[in-house]
Amino acid sequence: MNAHANPKQRGAADAPFYLPGADEIEVFQAAAANDLPVLLKGPTGCGKTRFVAHMAARLGRPLYTVACHDDLSAADLIGRYLLKGGETVWTDGPLTRAVREGAICYLDEVVEARKDVTVVLHPLTDDRRILPIDRTGEELEAAPGFMLVASYNPGYQNILKTLKPSTRQRFLALEFDFPEPAREIEIVTRESGLDRDRVTALVRLAGKIRGLKGQDLEEGVSTRLVVYAAALIQQGMGVDRAIEAAMIEPLSDDAETKRGLRDLSAAIF
Ligand code: ADP
User: Fold this and answer.
1) 48: helix, strand or coil
2) Where is the ATPase dynein-related AAA domain (predicted)?
């Protein structure tokens, strides 16, 4: 189980750093105020998870994050009977805990999860706001504050793994993308502590790499990887080695593509 709970109540002041791109903070706040679920669409590593963590802290709500994978089932979210000292004891899953506590439940990469998961989400995403727990016979009404947030990456061109309209039309949706250069420079500088000149060059390289998307690369380099490269350089690693480890090797296994990426890098540094 990949659940990470952070039930500590925090305020806006110590919310993790998040630099907005548009009006996503306002939209999310309005969704929260109206008990509406939100879907975050966008490529990996562009700030979706950070945004949810930031918003949970701002709203002072606990956050349960579940990294979905192809083996994740409804029972993993809801809970199961576990054997404890010879007795079977019911143990809530992260979704059930969030429903009881009035927390935010964030299902990261929800399309990866098994099909039975979406069935569970339906009664939670309309105005009933209930979670039926078949195993215990309970029908839980979501506590005030409960909010469902899910993310998915429409870029993976996998028709088997898109959300069905009957599911996606239950969510408000916000589109995320890689930040434009000025914003990405700000983010990477803040996250890594590296000087602005070198961050600017890394962000320029990231832009060039993203230009290759669709030709040699399935997906452009994420802001997360640019932050990694900057952090390595800030720690004293040589620029070429850091770029190789953070912005070239993670993107491709193909020798020719990697050579092309190195050429792009050499033209900038
Ligand atoms: P995703 O959930 O979209 O895969 P993350 O939220 O984990 O991506 O973002 C990866 C990293 O990129 C974060 O840990 C953070 O360092 C950085 N990042 C990306 N966008 C932002 C942003 N708008 N504000 C602050 N940090 C950001």
Assistant:
1) helix
2) 37-171
